[in-house]
Hints:
elongated; disordered N terminus; DNA-binding transcription factor activity; transcription regulation; 3 helices; 7-stranded mixed beta sheet; two-stranded antiparallel ribbon; DNA binding
Amino acid sequence: MAWDxxxxxxxxxxxQGHLGKVALxxxxxxxxxxxxxxxxxxxxxxxxxxxxxxRDRQPIIYDHYRRYTAEAGFEPVIxxxxxxxxxxxAMVAGGVGVGNAPVVPGLSYPGVSILxxxxxxxxxxxxxxxxALPAIxxxxxxxxxxxxxxxx
Length: 152
């Protein structure tokens, strides 16, 4: 998988449309004062230690964060760069800092509140690959099938 803005030329990609959009969100420890806000702005994050995806792994997220905080008039205090979303959630739950990352709707983690961020910034996901392996062909078939909704 790759961000749509990061797809190198020459790779195959899923032409049935993008897989989905995921909004950037703010993650705070349960009980944090930012929970009281209807939405969180970039300026609201000034002064809080921030947990971000590692720049080597997610340069688009990291660079956008730095750009938007500069536009909001502050230099972020990076508490930690993390490799995985699980690491970010655990650090937020432990009170290390405030997280900022794309969060799929419905995600929950004990001790963490996911807050809406404004202005809305969404990442588009597309499926890309270099070789047409059988596993990829199988995945593409699944992507073309409509999702069924179960009823209780």
